[in-house]
Amino acid sequence: MKRMLFQICCGPCAIYPLKEVLPGEFKLYGYFYNPNIHPYNEYRKRALAVKTLAGSLGIKVAYGDGYRPGDFYDRVLNADMALPPKEERCARCYGLRLQKTAEVARHYRFDAFSTSLLYSKYQFHESIKEIGFSLAQEYGVPFHYEDFRSGWGRGIKFSKKMGLYRQKYCGCIYSMEELESGEK
């Protein structure tokens, strides 16, 4: 069976694809790499939710590089330290996480990589898709594209039933500020 490295942004977004969609097609391995998450306590809560989910589903998960918000700021901010528009900022963040996933997938000779970001109706889906396919060419590991948003309600139901931590914002300081200010 083909092996897939699946980048996990959080437990609730990963549960539907990992439980319902991909298991018959791939031997799944999770990868939790999210230097965008702020603050550290939030990062810990999300990592714990992923650990709980992985244990429940019997999936091995690697936790890449720990808490490293500097990697996120280095990638997302412009050279003059200015914050780009939201869609560009998010695309840079997707690129950071998917590039690291593609690197790890190539290093360990996975047959494909994908991401739980494709589950969220709040993400810029086409941007994730475009970045994934671009990185597939660059790293020589196929990107498995699938629109997991159709399972949005089922994923929420599963995560509540499991008692997984459910966050209220994407993860970065900017999305947290949007939530707090009511911009979202």
Note the overall shape. globular
CATH level-3 fold name:
Rossmann fold
Number of strands: 4
- Number of alpha- plus pi-helical segments: 7
State the secondary-structure class: alpha/beta
Strand residue percentage:
5-15%
What is the helix/strand order? EHEHEHHEHHH
**CATH architecture annotation:** 3-Layer(aba) Sandwich
Briefly, what CATH class?
Alpha Beta
Radius of gyration: 15 Å
Largest sheet: 4 strands, parallel
Instruction: Report the end-to-end length measured between terminal Cα atoms.
Output: 41 Å
Assembly type: single chain
> How confident overall, as mean pLDDT?
95
- Name given to the CATH homologous superfamily: HUPs
Domain count: 1
Percentage of residues in helical conformation: 40-55%
Can you offer a commentary on this structure?
- There is one protein chain.
- This protein has 184 residues and is an alpha/beta fold.
- It has one domain (3-181): Rossmann fold (3-Layer(aba) Sandwich).
- It is built from seven helices and four strands.
- The protein has helices spanning 11-21, 40-57, 69-76, 86-107, 125-139, 152-162, 173-181, and strands at residues 3-7, 27-32, 60-63, 112-115.
- A four-stranded parallel beta sheet has the order 3-2-1-4, sandwiched between helices.
- Helix 2 (40-57) links the parallel strand 2 and strand 3.
- It is globular, with a radius of gyration of 15 Å.
- The mean pLDDT is 95.
